[in-house]
Automatic annotation (TrEMBL):
<keyword id="KW-0411">Iron-sulfur</keyword>
<protein>
    <recommendedName>
        <fullName>High-potential iron-sulfur protein</fullName>
    </recommendedName>
</protein>
<keyword id="KW-0732">Signal</keyword>
<dbReference type="GO" id="GO:0046872">
    <property type="term" value="F:metal ion binding"/>
</dbReference>
<dbReference type="Pfam" id="PF01355">
    <property type="entry name" value="HIPIP"/>
</dbReference>
<comment type="function">
    <text>Specific class of high-redox-potential 4Fe-4S ferredoxins. Functions in anaerobic electron transport in most purple and in some other photosynthetic bacteria and in at least one genus (Paracoccus) of halophilic, denitrifying bacteria.</text>
</comment>
<dbReference type="InterPro" id="IPR006311">
    <property type="entry name" value="TAT_signal"/>
</dbReference>
<dbReference type="GO" id="GO:0019646">
    <property type="term" value="P:aerobic electron transport chain"/>
</dbReference>
<keyword id="KW-0479">Metal-binding</keyword>
<dbReference type="InterPro" id="IPR036369">
    <property type="entry name" value="HIPIP_sf"/>
</dbReference>
<keyword id="KW-0813">Transport</keyword>
<dbReference type="GO" id="GO:0051539">
    <property type="term" value="F:4 iron, 4 sulfur cluster binding"/>
</dbReference>
<feature type="signal peptide">
    <location>
        <begin position="1"/>
        <end position="27"/>
    </location>
</feature>
<dbReference type="GO" id="GO:0009055">
    <property type="term" value="F:electron transfer activity"/>
</dbReference>
<comment type="subunit">
    <text>Homodimer.</text>
</comment>
<dbReference type="InterPro" id="IPR000170">
    <property type="entry name" value="High_potential_FeS_prot"/>
</dbReference>
<keyword id="KW-0004">4Fe-4S</keyword>
Length: 104
């Protein structure tokens, strides 16, 4: 079987595209952070910032939420988006955790 340069380039292009698409799909399917996850519990993550325990997390202030945190990878208006603190898993825009840092 003869393998021409043209076939090699075509096969390589298809394979590269498939791999790139697979990585994006895997990132999109990373799933949502659950409050019961070990990292979420350690950071006091709540899907709704109004439920944060103020005695346990005294640095929490009203108005803080994932949507205005520098680690939130979404845009204003997104209900869920990846968070760098949780390895790219989706967090609720209305959520909060103790790693909160206001967007600059």
């Amino acid at each position: 079987m003869k393998f021409s340069r043209r076939r090699f380039i075509a096969a390589t292009t298809v394979l590269t595209s498939a791999l790139a698409f697979g990585r994006r799909a895997a990132a999109a399917d990373a799933g949502a952070v659950q409050e019961s996850d070990a990292n979420a519990q350690a950071l006091g993550y709540k899907t709704d910032a109004s439920r944060v325990d103020h005695t346990k997390f005294p640095k929490f202030q009203a108005g803080q939420a994932c949507v205005n945190c520098q680690f939130f990878q979404g845009k204003t208006g997104d209900a869920m988006a990846p968070c760098t603190i949780f390895g790219g898993k989706q967090v609720n825009a209305k959520g909060w955790c103790s790693a909160y840092v206001k967007k600059a």
